[in-house]
Protein: ABC transporter ATP-binding protein
Organism: Rhodopirellula europaea 6C
Amino acid sequence: MSTEPNAAVADAPQTATPDSADASSSVVIETRNLSKIYRDFWGRKKVHALKSLDIEVRPGEIFGLLGPNGSGKSTTIKLILGLLFPTSGRVLVFDQDASETRKNERIGYLPEESYLYKFLTADETLDFYGRLFDLSASERRDRVSQLIEMVGLQGAKHRQLKEYSKGMTRRVGLAQALINDPDLILLDEPTTGLDPIGTREMKDLILGLRDQGKTVLLCSHQLADVQDVCDRVAILHQGELKELGRVSDLLKVQDVTEVHATGLSDAAKTEIADVIARHGGTVQSIDNPTATMEDLFLNIVRESEARPGARRVSQGSDAASANDGSSDSDGGQA
Ligand SMILES: Nc1ncnc2c1ncn2[C@@H]1O[C@H](COP(=O)(O)OP(=O)(O)OP(=O)(O)O)[C@@H](O)[C@H]1O
């Protein structure tokens, strides 16, 4: 998506205080029959980008908005920020209409593309955004150092952003989205361009935001990341809501029973298979579970950091051919 960074947020009047009358509200974002039609210069209908969307995002949850390219995710975010007006229906954020710019004081926004100023350092960037929110000099100092530490950029905070890797840029973007200590954070593709370690760290940061009681709306094409962090998801296709629910419920495979046990002998496994057959069930597999590729990758990198120079050798059948004579003989066996 191509929305300006914190455009709506920065537009908010800087002297107004947040409206806290809705502190006990059970819904943070509510879209009611929300539709958006983009029209051309002559007012003719060009694209029906969103069709009668009804979703609710609740306080303290991480809500995922998923869908293929062009399904209406960015349009939804722009409508939530009040950067676009609905063709019909409504968006309420903190019980206020999305066109009410004051509500944006309580929103942090990480756009998909970074629009940060390349010649500023991380410190200067966050200080700049702190000024937009009218934070005092001492508030800015405290908040900037707290956020820099939170996103792990202490060692690089005096370097200009043009020298930053994609992962570092993403982190400073997240810190910028949090400068106003928002209650609601909109994250558009937060893990784009990050390696598995950066991705894991970003996911941990997002989970940390939920632990602090923040509400997070996350758009992503990285389905594994969504599965890892989101409590509930909505899946859009061609502007229509196709699925909505708790991740754990949506992904549960019905009519398959999973049992995890340790220390079973082969004889015990055979006995279990017999019991299942006796009860009319079918054994699909009795096997060792597999870890995820992310777990494998992170373990290898952490091991390598702990023991530089050692080469890990898998016990898998391809290991011998993958292992050349230069590997260390004890190899840090998997
Ligand atoms: N300003 C615009 N004018 C005309 N059509 C637009 C405009 N912005 C978006 N669209 C169209 O609206 C539809 C939804 O676009 P949107 O950007 O919301 O999708 P998205 O789900 O965010 O896609 P992506 O995953 O690629 O970011 C698409 O068909 C897109 O071409």
Summary: The pocket of adenosine-5'-triphosphate is lined by residues 1, 38, 46-47, 49, 67, 69-75 (CB under 6 Å). The beta strands are 29-39, 45-57, 62-66, 88-93, 96-97, 107-110, 184-188, 215-219, 232-237, 240-246. Residues 1-23, 319-334 have pLDDT under 50 and may be disordered. The first strand starts at residue 29 and ends at 39.
